[in-house]
Amino acid sequence: MTTSQLSPPRTRDRFLDIVRALAILGVVVQHWAMPVLDYSGGAITTGNALTAPGWWAITWLSQVMPLVFFAGGAANLISLRRASSTRDWLAARLRRLLLPVLPLFAVWLVVPTVLHDLGVPEQPVAIAGAIAAQLLWFLAVYLLTILATPLLAAAHRRFGLAVPFALAAAAALVDVARFDGVPLVGYANAVFVWLAVHQLGFHYAEGRLGTLSPRAALGMSAAGFGVTALFVGFGPYAASMIGMPGAPVSNMSPPTACLVSLAVGQVGLVLAAKKALNRLAERPAVSGVLGWVGPRFMSIYLWHMPALVVVSGVLVLALGYATPVPGSLLWLAALPAWLTLTGLVLAGLLRVFGRFEATPRPATVTAPFWQLVTAGLLGSAGLLGLAAKGFANGPELWVALVVGAFLLSGKAVTREPVAA
Using CB atoms within 10 A of its CB, is residue 208 exposed (0-12), middle (13-18) or buried (19+)? Predict the structure, then answer.
């Protein structure tokens, strides 16, 4: 019997492709539309357009990180099942995630110095470095989900839906402790919340979620959004699903159990639209876009904020542009031009740096399992440090951790024999 007879056909799930593409589009558009910027006296002031009255409702759909982790969970389980070994799968996944970050580091290790030499004041440089690095939190957490995937896949086989329910219950208990006077414990939900959502993806790839009827999916969505409304209405949770400046509670930093119920609502919604989304994905133009975005998903995420920094630097710092009042006619008129300019800059950045992700270099020798786990933990720690400190505040240690993680993921460390 041939290998092709033993292995299942390797066809892509177009539904997952389009959900990922819509999610990254949502991330990019939200991050580009949110900033309210002004510059005077050598300092830039920042605000958030979504603080406008009633605009918190937009975040129930525009906060798409639940969809990213859901689609990632499904894709991870599918690829793990097809891999020749868990070790090979883990090595390939780590390198695929870490390689696109390296050119970002190379650029931002020199950008602050260049900006200072050009006469840009310290405060805008610090903000630019923070903006470019702050979204690395996602990659840090996602590395941990990659490390946990083999264990969670085994738990999925044995316990089924009990696993995401247990993770969601753990997230709720963490929230109880957080709001009862132990705020630092809330950061444990960076693991429990996103692993629970990631596990929902398993139940799409191997479970009933993949076969839900549109009516059942809409019922799931209503239940998820309904529980989220109860959390907000009767609990200590903020109405906005993203962090707002000056708000006493953030649902994102650290994550709250609200995001698990929000994920159920959003996943139910996209599952209800699955047939329509699949038909959309089959259109030649859309299929071409999906084929281009798929190999550059992480690069788009990593470079869309530097693109915003470039446009903001030119328009706000150099030309004195100030964001109009959010929601005003002037703001609505200016937004398409703002998005278009930033999109053009991103396209240029991707033309230069997208190739690192689109054409990854596989490791010639798969490292031992312990070494891969070490690489994942080191990479996650380095990325979290950068997300917290930014590129303009001594990033060398954190960069070294991530670079070391990439090197460890690609080459086995040999131990020299000890002389007698």
Answer: exposed
In this predicted model, what pLDDT tens digit does every residue of 359-383 receive, in sequence order? 766 655 678 999 999 999 999 999 9
Confidence of residue 264 (pLDDT cuts 50, 70, 90): very high
